[in-house]
Design goal:
elongated, mainly alpha, 133 residues
Length: 133
């Protein structure tokens, strides 16, 4: 999703990388600020339940972001250079919502990675050969 949203933002504003940069900073800020909370949640929850919930967060955010960008790209609110004053608020609200939801999908992705790494760590410890003392 991270790559796709950047391509869509470049398509909307080919002469500026400002939105792409804002998205990158927002995405990383969400991962950093929410990573500890997601890790604590995964430690408290059952591993598979936690991973499932993170998948739900990730997929719901991706779907919401996609819907917002579909409306923006459809031209219903105008093209980037010809947005009417009455539609400008809705246009930018949809772009901001798409960016926020896309960044939050990264938080879900981080949770999934943590859950899988925890399970892999537990499995590896069980598979260690018995050490004689």
């Amino acid at each position: 999703m991270e790559f796709t949203i950047a391509l869509v933002l470049i398509q909307l504003y080919p002469n500026s990388l400002l939105l792409v940069s804002v998205y990158g900073m927002l995405d990383n800020a969400a991962r950093i600020s929410m990573g500890g909370a997601i890790g604590a949640y995964i430690d408290r929850a059952e591993r598979w339940e936690g991973a499932r919930n993170c998948y739900l967060i990730q997929n719901a955010c991706i779907s919401g972001s996609g819907v917002c960008m579909a409306v923006v790209l459809s031209g219903l609110l105008g093209t980037p250079g010809s947005i009417g004053a009455d539609q400008q608020t809705a246009y930018w609200a949809l772009v901001a919502a798409a960016l926020l939801m896309s960044a939050m999908s990264s938080v879900g992705s981080t949770g999934i990675t943590i859950a899988v790494e925890k399970v892999a760590e537990m499995l590896c410890e069980r598979c260690k050969p018995y050490e004689h003392q």
